[in-house]
Amino acid sequence: MPPPSRTLDAYKVEVAHHVMRQNLDQTFSGRLPPMLPAIVVLNITVRDDGEVEDVEVQRSRNDNASRVAVASMRRSGKLPKPANLLAGSTRRLTFSETFLFDHQYRFQLRSLAGPQ
């Protein structure tokens, strides 16, 4: 098991790798297209054990892409434990992740994506 992430950005990279591994058929790799047909920003709340407690669409203009993004997070199962990043006594961490979609509704995650 990898050591706990010390920063939110490092944790988001860990989570992004996990989500990509759990959704290989919904993802694409390589250079991002010059015009992204859909971008979805999710707010994700994770409990101290890595269980996803809540996923909500913060921003999107495409309902199909929103459904794919939310379903991909749900399909990912338990995420890496957020350990030392938990807020107060709630023992939860809420963060955002951006899903970048191609024309086939496959995605890359902003935390891992290269230049466009």
List the helices and strands and how they pair.
Blueprint: H1 8-22, E1 38-47, E2 52-59, H2 63-75, E3 92-101, E4 107-109
Antiparallel strand pairs: 1-2, 1-3, 3-4
| Strand arrangement, major sheet | 2-1-3-4
Percent range for β-strand residues:
25-35%
Alpha-beta classification: alpha+beta
| SS field, number of helical segments | 2
Tally the beta strands: 4
Unreliably modeled segments? none
Domain count, please report it.
1
**CA distance, first residue to last residue:** 32 Å
CATH architecture: 2-Layer Sandwich
Question: Helical amount among residues, as a percent range?
Answer: 10-25%
How would you spell out the order of helices and strands? HEEHEE
